Amino acid sequence: MGLDGEVGKAQRAAAAGEERGQQPTIFSKIIARSVPATILYEDEKCLAFRDVAPQAPVHFLVIPKRPIPRISRVGPQDAELLGHLLVVASRTAQWHGAQSVYHLHLHVLGGRQLAWPPG
Prior knowledge:
This protein is of the alpha+beta class and about 120 residues long. The chain has a single domain (about 5-95), classed as HIT family, subunit A (2-Layer Sandwich), CATH 3.30.428. The chain has helices at about 5-20, 25-30, 80-95; strands at about 40, 45-50, 60-65. The protein has a three-stranded antiparallel β-sheet, covered by helices on one side. The protein is globular.
């Protein structure tokens, strides 16, 4: 299956999810405390918690409390929230993390349905 096949599969999965409406995600359940998590930081805008299947000695997630379904849905109205997530990630990493490449960077993976860990 080529790239077009994988992209098409991802697009169909996204469309099917939108047709069903916004279903609760594991993250919304963690925010609601119906799924347990080891919370490292919380404020009115976001939550930071340890990953349940860590891929490194320190592996945590920082999520907005207001769901943004995917990066392609981000707009100018989200700039303050996304900046806040980076500040919280920085503070949490100072308490709990380490860094190996000293140049700020974001990982964006796509083009096919991904498993974890990506590869």
